[in-house]
Design goal:
Number of strands: 10
Shape: elongated
Radius of gyration: 23 Å
Strand content: 25-35%
InterPro entries: Phage_CHP
Number of helices: 4
CATH architecture of the largest domain: Orthogonal Bundle
Distance between the termini: 19 Å
Order of helices and strands: EHHEEEEEEEHEEH
């Protein structure tokens, strides 16, 4: 289980940038647009197992692994704050001494292994949260965020906003003297933008 301890203070796209993308000039829908920004961001993050803005997370494990490869990126070695575990003998949570493990980096991903010649301590695995690793993940400087990521978020934002406004597969016209006509557009129109977003995010998969 991966959970957020401290959420990001901001998102890669501002309200002003979102409104410009949506061609919205008034403030009547600011609340909804503001809610769609994190939704679009999280959709893009889920495609590549990344977080785009610095935040504090906890990874809860049922047992030790030979190498604890953090399931999200980017993470730096010094961003692993603590490893807590439930001790076998006391059945209480303890903090593992940082000298007992090594944080290894590979690109912008991290794995944690026991110090050479040692083993993970005995674990009381019947506890609800046997192992909890706290760490920071995300880009510390928003300027480091790849441009394709921001474009993908803006596109997904437009898709979510449009889905709430009109039907993408049915269009109607009112013709004077003839009444109203309805016609269907290609069914795959609703997937064009999400597919484009997925393609934009391919370079960010790790």
């Amino acid at each position: 289980m991966l959970r957020i301890v401290t959420p990001p203070a901001s998102y890669p796209v501002t309200l002003a940038e979102a409104k410009a993308q949506l061609r919205v000039s008034d403030s009547s829908n600011d609340l909804m647009i503001g809610a769609l920004i994190p939704a679009a961001t999280k959709f893009c993050q889920s495609l590549v197992q990344r977080v785009f803005v610095l935040q504090t997370l906890e990874w809860v494990l049922p047992c030790w692994r030979a190498a604890l490869a953090l399931p999200i990126a980017p993470v730096l070695a010094d961003q692993v704050a603590s490893i807590k575990y439930v001790d076998w003998t006391t059945e209480t949570q303890a903090t593992l001494d940082p000298s007992a493990y090594v944080v290894q980096t590979k690109g912008d991903s991290v794995q944690i292994v026991p110090k050479f010649g040692t083993y993970w301590p005995l674990l009381f695995a019947r506890s609800p949260e046997p192992v909890v690793i706290r760490f920071d993940a995300g880009y510390e400087d928003p300027a480091d965020l790849p441009g394709n990521v921001k474009v993908a978020i803006l596109l997904m934002l437009r898709h979510l906003y449009t889905m709430g406004e009109v039907s993408l597969t049915l269009t109607s016209d009112t013709v004077f003297g003839a009444g109203q006509q309805q016609y269907a557009v290609p069914a795959n129109l609703a997937t064009l933008i999400p597919d484009a977003v997925r393609n934009l995010m391919l370079d960010e998969v790790w």
